[in-house]
Amino acid sequence: MEYRTLGRSGLRVSAIGLGSWLTYGRRVEDERARACLRAAYEAGVNFFDTADAYAGGEAEKSLGRWLREVPRPSVVVATKVFFPTGDGPNDRGLSRKHILESCEASLRRLGLDYVDLYQCHRHDTSVPLDETLRALDDLVVRGKVLHAGVSEWSADQIDDALRTGRRLGLRPLVSNQPQYSLLARRIEEAVLPLCRREGLGQVVWSPLAGGALTGKYRPGEAAPSGSRGADENDRRFMRAVLADEVLEAVDRLRTEVAEPRGLNVAQVALAWILHQEGVASAIVGATRPEQVREDVAAAGIELQPETLEHIEAIMGPFARRAQP
After folding, report:
1. Cα angle at 11 between 5 and 13, to 5 degrees?
2. What is the per-residue pLDDT for 323?
3. 120, 265, 285, 270: which is closest to 180 by C-alpha?
4. 58 lies in a domain?
């Protein structure tokens, strides 16, 4: 496993991380979740990402039960705050009250004294930015959080936070968690250049575009039973990446790039992500231990410049690049 420094912090994270959105605590029973977590850990993964809102807190609980089996210093645990965790008016957002209370609740569910990375899951325009940043800084001072980051913030929002933090003399943010894949490349325009300049590492989510970059979906065929593409609710969000012309490109990626090198499509897609400057870790989701092992193997794949150009020629026309 390759380990990369997270931004300008001293924290080292595995190039492949394991996430728990839509899986642990909800769709995957606890024993299988533990098997996936164990497989990742044994393969060298040390970065585990979750959020307070995933499965109503059950994802953190599921991860916490497994964490009891491993030495605390051997893992980097990340969670997030923003989305509703209750029905009350203060049970959401990035107010000081919600950040402090949500962090304590996450620590209880995880069974930890501290988390390595605490991330603002979205930007909150209803709360003064200095209130949010001071609350995060206070958590670091108290030892509840080692580092703070953001997720899905625009370049302007990140820049504003960095400027405000410097003005207030606060510890800087160290990371950004954006959606990034061969099919979702909006951050390349402004977010990535800013983060590279300011030293924020990228821990990217959905690097396989919700499964569209795994090769499991084929053009003109029904989605496999049990897959996200076969789920009526999930398919609404995946319609664009499951279009036949996109899947035809993914099939070309399989036959022209992956198979000649003894790889699968997912490994090529993950290796491409890890070749992008500033990416510290690609967070994958998994429902089977063997899936974890296959994805983790991508960390050791070297893609030559001509291969990267070939991938770009195949997939580039189908990537979403413009900011919405």
Report:
1. 65
2. 47
3. 270
4. yes
In 162-293, DSSP assigns E strands to: 175-177, 201-205, 279-284
41 is catalytic: no
Burial of 125 (0-12, 13-18, 19+ CB in 10 A): exposed
The Cα–Cα gap between 64 and 112 comes to: 8
Query: What CATH number does residue 295 fall under?
Result: 3.20.20.100
Expressed as residue numbers, the domain containing 126 is: 3-212+267-302
Is pLDDT of 18 > 50? yes
- Of 3, 24, 41, 54, the catalytic one is 54
In a domain, 252, yes or no: no
Q: How far apart are CA 202 and CA 13, in angstroms?
A: 11
Q: What is the CA radius of gyration of the chain?
A: 19
- pLDDT band per the 50, 70, 90 thresholds, residue 31: confident
Question: Do β-strands 145-151 and 279-284 pair in parallel, antiparallel, or remain unpaired?
Answer: unpaired
What are the pLDDT digits (tens) for 41-53? Answer: 999 999 999 999 9
Give residue 59's identity as a one-letter amino acid code: A
Number of domains in the chain: 1
